[in-house]
Amino acid sequence: MRLEWRGREIEIRELGQGPALLLIHGYPLDGAMWSAVSRRLSDRFRVLKPDLPGRPDNPAWPDGSIESYADFIQSVAAAAGEPFGLVGFSMGGYVALALMKRRPAAVRALALVDTRAVADDESVRAKREEAIAILRQRGVEPIAESMLPKLLASASIARRDLADRVRRIILRQRAETLISDLQAMRDRPDLTAFLSEISVPTLVVVGGDDVITPPAESEEMARAIPSGRLVTIPGAGHLTPMENPIAVEQALGDFFGSALGGAIS
Ligand code: MLT
């Protein structure tokens, strides 16, 4: 699907047919992080995995706010047709929650994958500033090296093909885009109180060894959402959709199959 947004032509990758599922990627990645999961989900759903602004498929200027990323996702959703199933991974989860807050009726079911509702505290904000300074001075490469051990569980890092794929995705991002992501995450509001207002079926997925958004936070989030359910993927770190796409597809497929009615072909 092609979309015009803020004067730029944007390619939205999509595959499959059926109820629409919109997958939002995290930092410092792009929509390709969903490749394996989306191939499997496309047996049952029309899967859209847009790149957020400033990335290979999306030349729009990334202006450093989660709200502006949510504006973009709202336009994708409007072009795809509402209502839809929404999946947000980590920073994509921050965008998904922002969209839920402004357009709850557009979303029929929600999955929050390795993400959180709490805002950054002072120490996390300071780390964002450090990463911004590194990106300004030395570019993306040191960020790729420092992020890999945080994104992947140690057993996943040992899988050379997986680690190389993640590294390749990070290295093709521009420094200005990642700076925008860091500013957006740093400045986002705390949405913990909003969780109790989510009225659609919601699945929370977390890697058992996630060190960026730890399982305890996901457990709390699932408890705070009235129709929240938690699935933990043992052995995976933060990047569960790439570390264990079969388990993530199964969890999402079962959940959205009953929430949206995607038939198994
Ligand atoms: C992400 O995976 O999108 C980010 O690491 C999340 C974060 O840093 O808060």
Summarize the model shown.
With about 260 residues, the protein is α/β, with parallel strands linked by helices. The protein has helices at about 35-40, 65-80, 90-100, 120-140, 140-150, 155, 160-170, 175-185, 215-225, 240-245, 245-260; strands spanning about 1-5, 10, 15, 20-25, 45-50, 85-90, 105-115, 200-205, 230-235. It has a seven-stranded mixed β-sheet, with helices on both faces.
What can you see in these coordinates?
- The structure is a single chain.
- The protein is α/β, with parallel strands linked by helices.
- It has a single domain, classed as Rossmann fold (3-Layer(aba) Sandwich), CATH 3.40.50.
- 45% of the residues lie in helices and 16% in strands.
- α4 packs antiparallel against α8 and α5 crosses α7.
- The two termini are 23 Å apart.
- Bound molecules: D-malate.
- D-malate (MLT) binds next to loops.
Overall radius of gyration: 17 Å
CATH fold topology: Rossmann fold
Corresponding CATH architecture: 3-Layer(aba) Sandwich
- Roughly what is the average pLDDT, rounded to an integer? 96
Report how far the terminal alpha carbons are from each other: 23 Å
- Cross-sheet strand order for the largest sheet: 3-5-4-6-7-8-9
Shape: globular
- Counting helices, strands and paired strands, the structural category is alpha/beta
The number of distinct structural domains comes to 1
Order of secondary-structure elements:
EEEEHEHEHEHHHHHEHEHH
Number of helices: 11
Which residue ranges are poorly predicted, with pLDDT under 50 across at least 5 consecutive positions? none
Ions, cofactors and other bound molecules: D-malate
Largest sheet composition: 7 strands, mixed
Portion of residues in beta strands equals 15-25%
The overall strand count is 9
Corresponding CATH superfamily:
Alpha/Beta hydrolase fold, catalytic domain
